[in-house]
Amino acid sequence: MTRTLLIAALAILSCCQSTSAEDSEGVAFLRKHYVQLLKFKDSATFKDVGFGTGGPHNRWLTDLESVRKTNNYERNERIALGDLLNLGMEFLKTHGAENDYTKFARKEIEKVIGPDVMETAAEVHQEKGKTLDKGDQDEKRRTATFRDASGTFSVVAIFKGISNGVITLQRVDDDREIKVPKEKLAADSQKWINDYIAETRK
Description:
The chain is an alpha+beta fold. 62% of the residues lie in helices and 13% in strands.
């Protein structure tokens, strides 16, 4: 009798695990974007341009908004998706700082995502504490928000160099290179370039 009950329990457990695996698409999406948010919420680029078009984090926002419109997930996953969007907007207002709402939202999201996300979150914080190698440090130093003189266009990009008065930039969001005459840039962007060049020549 005991053996029969044990086999039945194992069968039920196996069934539940199988169903969980089948329904994991929404959870996997939420977990991925939740961890991404934890990674970039304290970054200089997020504090500078947020989810702005052309910035490196705009894709995060458009991905969530696109999935939200499809309405293909379970009810609890859809609620968590809304919580995640609100969490991103709150971090935008607080410049990545935690407050009572962000703590509440994170708890609600983690109820849906599952306990293993806490290990992933711990990895995020551990990763933030690692020392950047020389190449990463150099790329970080060369990354800035560049604006045009009219003030209508801005892009987060890596400064690649200048030749004959033409600036080469590599967009952070899609890695495309763009070239623009230096005089077409806003005064603060030109100053940033001048300061960077002066710094590297020391």
